[in-house]
Amino acid sequence: MRTENIKKTTEFVSQNFIYIFLLMLIAAIATVNPKFLSLTTLRDILLQSSTRVIIAIGMFCILLTGGVDLGAGRVIGLAAVLSASMLQTPDYARRFFPNLPQLPLWLPIAIAILAGISVGLLNGIIISRFSVPPFIATLGTQVIAYGINSIYFDLPPNNSQPIGGLRKDFTFLGSGLIGSIPIIVIIAVIIAAIAWVVFTRTSFGKYTYAIGGNRQAAEVSGINVKLMLLLIYTIAGACFGFAGVLEAARTGGATNNYGFMYEFDAISACFVGGVSTTGGVGTVPGVLAGVLIFGVINYGLTFIGINPYWQYILKGIVIVVAVSIDIRKYLAKK
Amino acid sequence: MSDEFILEMNNISKEFPGVKALDDVTLKVRKGTIHALVGENGAGKSTLMKCLFGIYKPDSGEIVLNKNHVEINSPIDALKLGISMIHQELHPVPYRNVMENIWLGRFPQRKYGPLNFVDHKKMYDDTKALLKGLNIDIKPNEKVANLSVSKVQLMEIAKAISYDSKIIIMDEPTSSLTENEVEHLFKIINDLKKRGVSIIYISHKMEEILKIADEVTIMRDGKRIGTWSASELNIDMIISKMVGRDLTNRFPKRYNVPGKVKMKVENFTSSMPNSFKNISFEVREGEVLGVGGLVGAQRTELIEAIFGLRSVQSGEIFINGEKVNIKSPIDAKKHKIALLTEDRRLTGIIPLMSVLENTSIANILKYIKPNLLLDSKKMRNDVTQAVEMLRVKTPSLNKVIKDLSGGNQQKVLFARWLLTEPEIFLLDEPTRGIDVGAKFEIYTIIADLAKQGKSIIMISSEMPELLGMSDRIMVMCEGRLSGIIDGNKATEEEIMRLATRFIA
Lengths: 334, 504
What we know:
Chain A contains 14 helices and 2 strands. Chain A has 334 residues and is mainly α. Helix content of chain B is 32%, strand content 26%. In chain B, helix 14 runs parallel beside helix 15 (436-451).
């Protein structure tokens, strides 16, 4: 009976390792400084994590198929610059388009998301139609996206100056509150909820798991795998584009280097959150926990006054240790 | 028997680079019958079925279904036309549950306004009803990774049946099933037959075929030999039609004289449940020991375990009478064992490296000079010698190996191992994918090695090769040793009988 209980406990710990780890991390920081446990802290961590959640969910879709997108960061930069350049206040001195009339808020946002969709669609075409490995395909398109963004950003009269003076209605999206909850957090929660429903309740989500779990099985079961891949990369592109818009709104500006290397944070969060490196395994709550772990490390270490450079070392350790523990669930002996 | 053909595959040909997999094959299946397709490994049965299911596109020929000409370009087309398939290689999605595997590609839907969601309750109930109707004891929400191989196979059978197809292709459906489960499957098949479903049944198991089939089509080397009513056939007739080919002068004369026992393997049992069990045998100096059996007999697994690539639960190896402990290929090399793997391209050659590098790679530490650089002159000399001895045809040692023919690539791999001066050679399908002329040269190399007193264990799925090259032939079936016979007196029929000995 006792061994039975121990077995059950180890089983529970190994299945829920990531959530337990998150709680342990919070507990450790709170031991050093109990003030860490406050609503302000919670709100700040959620605020900082919300764009990362959206990026991580886009990445999650792709990782589930066994692919990867190395271009997420550059798409975020492109979307940030596009939306910011068209949403400056009329009286701002260095406007990107000096004579641009006041556009409805949705239009520049739609254009920026559309740019993300285009890059995603391009990735999808290259990967599904021409069978280029996702690593290479997205490595290529990210450079193209950066190039296009930089040319746009360098247009006179802007000439590669950071874009600022954003309209209040736009920055409100990134820093405004509804009651005492930041809008951006609500958006992230809604997107996460949609993703969760899609991946647990719809054919689309289950096909995605099947493609990553055993592509041949998906093919012989009559799933149009190529079309699925095309859609998945496109949807991910939309997520990255939207994240770029929110990133501009949150920070009140944009440059062509926005989002640089964000894909690695997203990939790390997914893997730490239990997504399999070969695809086919992973959950939305796991990804959220992964993002939050890094959010807590970022915020918490600063909070207790540790040299920020230590964050990098701790993050690296977390990635390796968490994945090496998580992967034990799947290891099989030859 | 119905006179009406539900399916006609007429004059189907399919060529892969270097191999004519199907040569003008015709297959006609009557409505509501069980049509068995038999032939040796590589005869083209699975290829023909993959053409029917839209996985391969035939180079020529036509498919006629219910008297209508049809184009099948993908499994989606095949399923829509009422053809489903149980695949030889199982295709589960391991980390999803049983019901998601069964209804993959066609989950039941439930509408909420404009939105479509998977109806989990209906899926669960449908799965439960399906499995109950077939009397298969699996839980619908069990994760597939937790099922035994035979349960996975039963799940795939249930899946193929759930499409309500007019034609079900069953490619080795019983390969992982127990005797009782096979009986159970036969009941299911007979029920399907009564409902007018046609079944194309591929199996190596002769008793099974004679028991269940109405008609039998026999294939050999990508060609159709003929179609007979099952009642006209017996096991011997099927086997002789499957293997019937001439055996003149395809092998070099052998002058080896087996000497004292070189290696003894005792009670080798894999740590995997469905792999080899209790295998004991010995091989002598200067002897070629052939290893025969069907696909799935666990021959590769056995010799890879001897080489330290796979773990064993129990068993001992003695070399020259002394017990040795081989836990990895490094240990195996130390004990002068060499392994030529089954899949030359995947686990043998390093395609983009030169002949020189490919030959020396297993032995490269020998050429490190005191200054830590490689002694390329000595390396080149040794490689040249080995390559000349084996008559490798290459314009230069710097040629990239992937540009060589299959036969010459295989010779380079022999040369690689010769440099390590082994005494025991483990050869896994040494002539697979090599043309007939080059095969003779490989056989000559094997015969020469034996003459020099080396011990050779050679897995082969080609009967003539086993008979032509082996001093003794060890035959395996379902992971068990079913017999060791004298290579000079053995017949193909005898091997085939041993290879199916433990199969229901």
